[in-house]
From TrEMBL:
Keywords: Acyltransferase, Glutathione biosynthesis, Hydrolase, Plasmid, Transferase, Zymogen. It comes from Rhizobium leguminosarum. This is Glutathione hydrolase proenzyme. NCBIfam families: g_glut_trans. GO terms for biological process: glutathione biosynthetic process; glutathione catabolic process. GO terms for molecular function: glutathione hydrolase activity; leukotriene C4 gamma-glutamyl transferase activity.
C-alpha cells in the first residue's frame, strides 16, 4: 500500500483518525480515535452509551474477524413484558411503536451498552496506541466545544411522528443535561454554527482515560452511578447487567459477486441480507441496464423486498434462535428469487399492523494493508443522560419484537438485531473496497447498490456513494429526489406505490474506500457532513 485512508461522516473525527495514522498508528488505532470523537461531535449517532461491530483485517497477523459489541436486553426483560402496549411496526421495519413510546424514549428504552468494552478490546487485541492517547482528541471538543453541523441539526429537528416514534427534539429535552447542552437559555434549540460544549462528557472521558480501560464503566464507579440512576428512574439496567456484559468475536460471512469475494457481518448483523441481495442481482445483467431507469429500479425493488422478507422471517441473535443464513445465501435460493422477478411476480412485505436511524460508520485502510470497517451507534437515542456524565444512552429496546416467539423477540441478555453491514471486498487475496454505512434498515440496500455501482457500472468511489439510490424494505418504492419523474411515472403505471424523498442524497450514508494499484481513495456520502483524508 502506498498510502492510508480514513473516511467517516464527521470531519473532526476523520481528522483525529488521520492524525493517528500520521503518527504511525495502524488502522485500528485510527478507527478508535475517530470513534471516540464521533461520540462527542455526533452524540445522538454514537458514543459510549451505544454499541456496534468492528470488521478487522490484518494480513500480516493472519487476523480477519468481526468484533461484536452489540447491545444486550436487560437481564430483567421478559418476552411478554410489553404485549399489552403494542401499537404497530414502523414502515421500514426498523422498530416497534408502543404506547407512550416507552421502548423508544427514557430509561426503559435502554439496552446494556457495549461500545466502551468494544473499543478497549479492539485496542488491546489489534491496536498499538496508548488508551489515554486515543481518548485525548475527543476530550478537547467536549470541553472547548465544536460547531453544530448541518446534518446534526437536521436530525435534531426532523419530524418522525409519521412513524409513531418520539422526535429527537423531545429526547434532547428529556434530561436536565440535554436541556442545558442542546438548547439556549430561552429554551430554543441551538442552531447550525452554534458552539456545543459538553463539559460533563469531557470529565467522563477524562475519568475513563485515567482508569486505563473499560472496567470503570462495567465494574467501577461509573457503573455505580449508572445503576443508581436507572434505579431512581425506573429503568431495568443494574450493576449485574453491566458486570456480566460480554462481547464476542466471530468469523465474517462470505459471498461473491462477479468474481469479487465479499466478507461481512454475520447475524445478528445485517451483512448476510446485503449479500443475499447481491446474489439475487447477480442473476441479472445489471451493467447493461441504464442506472436509475424504471427497469433497473423495478428489479432492485423486487430483489430488496425478497431480501427483506427473508430477513424479517429469520433475523435474530444466533445464541437464541437458528438463523439459516447459509441457505439464504445459497445461489440456488438467489436463482429462485430471480426467476420469480423475471416472471413478473410481485413480492409482498408484511408488517405488524400499522426511516432512517441513528448510527455512524468508519472505513480505514493503512499502509500495511490493515483494514477496518466499523459501524457503531445508539440505535436510536433514548434521551436518558445520567446527571454529571454527559453522554446519552442508546434507545434500542424498540428494535426488539414485542410479540413472544419470534426470532427478534425480547429475551434477557439477548442481542438486538443490528442493521449494520461493515464490509470488506477482496479481488483475489487483496482488499479492494472497505465499505459501510449508517442508516438502519436502509444500510444493506445502500451498501449493495454502492458495490454494484463500482463493480457493474465501473464508477469511481465518489461516484458510487453519490449516485441516486432507492430502497425497498416495504411495499413502497422509496426513491431519492434525483430519480427522474418519468421513471416514477413509469413505475406507477406498472402498479407500484412510489414515495419520493425530498432529500437529494437519501437512504443511508455510505462511506467507502476503493483500492486500486496500491493506492486507496475514500469518499464520504454527501448526505452527511463527512470527508475522507489520505495519508502518504
Amino acid at each position: 500500500m502506498r498510502n492510508a485512508t480514513i473516511v467517516a461522516p464527521q470531519p473532526e473525527a476523520v481528522e483525529a483518525g488521520a492524525e493517528v495514522l500520521e503518527r504511525g498508528g495502524n488502522a485500528i488505532d485510527a478507527a478508535l480515535a475517530c470513534a471516540f470523537v464521533q461520540g462527542v461531535v455526533d452524540p445522538q449517532m454514537a458514543g459510549i452509551g451505544g454499541f456496534g461491530s468492528m470488521h478487522v483485517y490484518m494480513p500480516k497477523k493472519g487476523v480477519h474477524e468481526i468484533l461484536e459489541f452489540y447491545a444486550r436486553a436487560p437481564l430483567k426483560a421478559a418476552p411478554d413484558m410489553w404485549l399489552d402496549k403494542i401499537k404497530h411496526q414502523s414502515r421500514d421495519g426498523f422498530g416497534y411503536v408502543l404506547e407512550g413510546n416507552i421502548s423508544d424514549i427514557g430509561y426503559l428504552a435502554v439496552c446494556t451498552p457495549g461500545s466502551l468494552k468494544g473499543y478497549e478490546t479492539a485496542l488491546r487485541d489489534y491496536g498499538t496506541f496508548d488508551w489515554a492517547d486515543l481518548i485525548k482528541p475527543a476530550i478537547r471538543p467536549a470541553r472547548n466545544g465544536f460547531m453544530i453541523r448541518n446534518h446534526m441539526h437536521w436530525y435534531w429537528a426532523k419530524d418522525q411522528s409519521n412513524d409513531g416514534f418520539a422526535n429527537t427534539l423531545d429526547k434532547l429535552r428529556f434530561s436536565e443535561t440535554g436541556r442545558r447542552t442542546y438548547f439556549h437559555d430561552d429554551g430554543t434549540l441551538k442552531n447550525v454554527g452554534d458552539l456545543l460544549v459538553n463539559k460533563d462528557m469531557a470529565e467522563t472521558l477524562e475519568r475513563i482515560a485515567r482508569s486505563g480501560g473499560s472496567d470503570i464503566f462495567y465494574h467501577g464507579e461509573l457503573a455505580e452511578q449508572i445503576a443508581d440512576d436507572f434505579k431512581t428512574h425506573g429503568g431495568l439496567i443494574d450493576r449485574q447487567d453491566l458486570a456480566r456484559y460480554e462481547l464476542s468475536k466471530v468469523e465474517p460471512v462470505w459471498g461473491d459477486y462477479r468474481d469479487n469475494r465479499i466478507a461481512t457481518s454475520p447475524p445478528p448483523g445485517s451483512g448476510f441480507p446485503m449479500l443475499e441481495l447481491l446474489h439475487i442481482m447477480e442473476q441479472f445483467d445489471v451493467g447493461s441496464l441504464q442506472h436509475g431507469s424504471a427497469e433497473h429500479v423495478r428489479i432492485l425493488f423486487e430483489a430488496m423486498k425478497r431480501m427483506t422478507i427473508d430477513k424479517d422471517a429469520h433475523m435474530g441473535d444466533p445464541a437464541y434462535v437458528d438463523v439459516p443464513y447459509e441457505k439464504l445465501l445459497s445461489k440456488e435460493h438467489a436463482k429462485a428469487h430471480a426467476r420469480a422477478i423475471k416472471a413478473g411476480e410481485i413480492a409482498n412485505v408484511s408488517r405488524l399492523d400499522g426511516s432512517q436511524r441513528d448510527t455512524t460508520h468508519i472505513s480505514v485502510i493503512d499502509k500495511d494493508g490493515n483494514a477496518v470497517a466499523m459501524t457503531h451507534t445508539l440505535g436510536s437515542p433514548s434521551g436518558a443522560i445520567t446527571d454529571g456524565l454527559g453522554f446519552m444512552y442508546n434507545g434500542t429496546m424498540s428494535r426488539f419484537n414485542p410479540l413472544p416467539g419470534k426470532p427478534g423477540s425480547i429475551a434477557p441478555g439477548k442481542r438486538r438485531p443490528s442493521s449494520a453491514a461493515p464490509t470488506i471486498v477482496f479481488k483475489g487475496d487483496e482488499p479492494s473496497i472497505v465499505i459501510g454505512a449508517p442508516g438502519g434498515s436502509y444500510i444493506a440496500p445502500a451498501v449493495a447498490q454502492c458495490l454494484m455501482n463500482m463493480i457493474d457500472f465501473d464508477m469511481s468511489v465518489l461516484e458510487a456513494v453519490s449516485a441516486p439510490r432507492i430502497v425497498g424494505v416495504s411495499n413502497t418504492i422509496d426513491i431519492c429526489n434525483r430519480i427522474r419523474h418519468s421513471v416514477e411515472d413509469d413505475l406507477r403505471a406498472q402498479g407500484y406505490q412510489v414515495a419520493r424523498s425530498p432529500q437529494t442524497y437519501a437512504f443511508a450514508a455510505v462511506h467507502a474506500i476503493k483500492i486500486e494499484g496500491g493506492i486507496s481513495k475514500g469518499a464520504a456520502d454527501p448526505q452527511r457532513d463527512g470527508m475522507a483524508i489520505s495519508v502518504a
